Fold:
Amino acid sequence: MGKVLIIGAGGVGQVVAHKCAQVPEVFSEICLASRTVSKCEKIASQIKRPIRTAAVDADNVPELVRLINDFKPELVINVALPYQDLHIMDACLETGVNYLDTANYEPLDEARFCYKWQWDYQKKFEEAGLMALLGSGFDPGVTNIFTAYQLKHHFDEITELDIIDVNGGDHGQAFATNFNPEINIREVTAPCRHWENGDFVETDAMSMNRKFECPENVGTYNIYRMYHEELESLVKHIPSIKKAQFWMSFSDNYLKHLEVLQNVGMTRIDPVMYQGIEIVPLQFLKAVLPEPASLGATTKGRTCIGCVCKGTKDGKEITRYIYNICDHEEAYREVQSQAISYTTGVPAMIGAKMMMTGKWTGKGVFNMEQMDPDPFMEALNIHGLPWKETAL
Ligand code: NDP
Structure:
């Protein structure tokens, strides 16, 4: 039993608040804080248990420290944006509170996300006797745990990893992103990087694609190779992996809109002068696109996210696939959010549960694959993200 502070009242924050509220035996008190307090209040009004709300600018460390000292949580769940990660980690260190997030730090003025900045906090968290759990969403998050689980139970060595993220859902909008538009567009327009023979190899964004047939009639989709943050931690912590790639499905319609937006300069992240004021085109674009949290009511279809692992067991080469399928409409019925927010928010709650119940402990900064996958895998089945595995 303990108190949890959730920071960020967007699509993912909504799911985390609902899911923590469903587990009162672990999360005895919940506070949801964000820049716009009315968004916290709207989410609180959907939840039967009373939850506290607060306004906070998570880029302002003294403000965060005041809130944490006032509420006194055991853990802060950061589901604001990657730009806030280091500020929230600083506030946790100052107040002696554990930390969890779902996306690694990225500077606002440079579309380059990597773990270095947060791994550099290792010593500080270790010395403070605190735990920071990084990337407890679906990808990163569950995909790291899927890989660790395969290694623990089925392989002597994993040598090749393909993480495949298919969203077979349709939100009915001409163009919208399923999570924060700014972060999403920065991610998909970045050059692709995959791991091969001890190094990351860079190729043009979206330059490699293939078809993937999902199980359980989810459908066959075009998947595009791109860089994703869990590749960096997985090849570090599972050094037998010689090749690691991340693939995501995109519709032709999404890619057509994205190409036009790029061509006309709307995805730029450097400021331009407009009528005497500086604006960042991508931030302006975010302001006119639908909010991911608003897509739930209209999104239909299913997601299918999983890992194909190749390697050896008892001297034999084997390949296995492990995946979860999540239905957008079912997610909406449960927590009034679409499946992308759901598949991120549920693992954030489960990671928090692992820490609050002492199933996962440690001093320092950890990625998911460093933890025992078994209790987390069990919790996925209990809390709405059941998984299946099969030999290929
Ligand atoms: P949203 O844009 O829907 O929500 C982000 C929320 O953070 C908003 O409510 C926003 O407030 C708040 N926020 C932004 N800046 C600040 C600040 N300075 N102080 C306080 N609050 C702030 O994004 P999502 O919910 O879709 O995504 C949340 C996080 O989850 C992101 O980091 C994203 O990268 C990550 N993610 C991870 C995935 C995974 O599988 N690992 C998958 C999908 C997302 P306001 O409304 O006032 O702007």
In short: DSSP finds 14 helices and 18 strands in the chain. Residues 8-13, 34-36, 39, 56-59, 79-82, 84, 102-103, 137-141, 179-180, 183, 292-293, 344 surround NDP (CB under 6 Å).
